[in-house]
Amino acid sequence: MSRKAKTQEVTEVETAKVEAQQAEKPKVSRPPLDWGTVLSWGITGLVIAGLVLVLLNINPFKSDTEVVEVTDPNNSLNIPLPSLASGMPVDDLIRIANIDTTVPEGVRQFAVKYTVVPGDSLFTIAKVYGVTAESILWANFELLNDDPTFLKEGWVLTIPPTNGIYYKWKAGDTIEKIAEKYYADPEEIITWPGNNLDVANLNTENLTDVNVMIPGGYRDVVSWIVPVDFAPRSGATKSIAGPGGCITPETGPIGSTFFQWPTGATYLSGFDFTSYHLGIDIAAAEGTPVIASDSGTVVYAGWNDSGYGNLVAIDHNNGYKTIYAHLSSILVQCGQNVTSGNMIALSGNTGKSTGGHLHFEIRSGSQYINPWQILP
Questions:
Q1: Cys staple from 194: which of 48, 109, 228, 371, with CB 3.0 to 4.6 Å?
Q2: DSSP string across 174-202
Q3: Are 321 and 302 a contacting pair, CB within 8 Å?
Q4: How far is CA 138 from CA 166, 196, 215, 220, 301, in A?
């Protein structure tokens, strides 16, 4: 047998073996196609595709050649409006007003009530509420009568929402009159949110007996101090100041006009110098030593009837006098000469006072001098 014939025979034998092996493998049967499932998946796919188009704001049916009408303002039609009917008042027109007012965060729009507790002072209450002591004083005139120094436990104070006058409206008042009276801006009164005024249809007739905030307004305050006239070397008589006055010597040490702080502290614990508080309240706990601010003659030493409590007054025999008030103890006598730096008293909380401090005044003739301008 030729080589070619043998090769062909081998090939045929191997082919027969492969076919036999394939014939021995089990046939895998396939389930019939479920058209219901196919249809369900198709519908689900269409719904998902539709949702995606909606989310993307895509309209598959929108024409790419959609025409957008552009109006030329230069060529727009000028259609005349109908004229007002004869006799129709202008106020009858409907007006849409924007009465929104921007108010900084944290700003109160309305007044609140505060009950005085032991240890309170007008100064500390004002600091807590972020307003001036004057604003609280003005809002409570019927209770305090412009006296900032005396608070009683249990009193209920009205705390205004901002600095200014918290005013009870009276019949016949107008925005212009009240603004002029209290040196305020009429627009700020109108636009203050707590006043609830309609800028589009301003009507103040319904404000009678209603409290209105006058932001930034102010008025003069009646001084709570009853002036005690200390003429040079004449003393203060009992009829003027109380039982602490006396007849003083005709001569005495003359002050240097270089005043020193009457206590160790050089800062306030209450009211500053104002038109109604003609001195400064220096920080001094009860029992703190008080010294003569300059040399002179004691012209008053004792209880004072005008709200100062225990008081020492020194005439410096050069036109200046100094006042030391609300003392717990007095260490000098009326008519006594003192030298600058001598201890004259202990600080306290007597008279119209809430909390230990020293009320200190400097007077020149009939004038009250701001101590900050004199003290070192």
A1: 109
A2: -HHHHHHHTT--HHHHHH-GGG---SSS-
A3: no
A4: 7, 22, 13, 10, 33
Residues 267, 270, 273, 274, Cα dihedral to 10°? 150
Q: How far apart are CA 191 and CA 206, in angstroms?
A: 17
Sequence-distant (6+) residues with CB within 8 A of 280 are 268, 271, 272, 273, 359, 360, 371, 372
**pLDDT tens, position by position, 8-50:** 565 565 655 655 555 555 554 555 656 677 677 777 777 787 7
- Using DSSP, state whether 51 is helix, strand or coil: helix
- Residue showing tokens 């040079």: 232
Report pLDDT digits (tens) over 215-266.
999 887 765 555 555 544 544 445 455 678 777 777 789 999 999 999 998 8
Q: How far apart are the first and last CA of the chain?
A: 141
Contact 128, 136 (CB under 8 A): no
What's this model's pTM, rounded to 2 decimal places? 0.52
Tokens of 26: 């089990």
Residues 304/228, Cβ–Cβ less than 8 Å: yes
Q: Amino acid letter at 244?
A: G
Q: Which domains does the chain have, with CATH numbers?
A: 112-215 (3.10.350.10), 238-373 (2.70.70.10)
Query: How far is Cα 329 from Cα 69, in angstroms, rounded to an integer?
Result: 93
| CA-angle at 243, arms to 237 and 245, nearest 5° | 40
Give the residue among 164, 146, 154 at the shortest CA–CA distance from 222.
146
Q: Both tokens of residue 44?
A: 């689900």
Please report the beta strands in 265-353, taking only residues with DSSP state E, as ranges in sequence order. 280-283, 289-291, 296-304, 309-315, 320-330, 337-338, 343-347
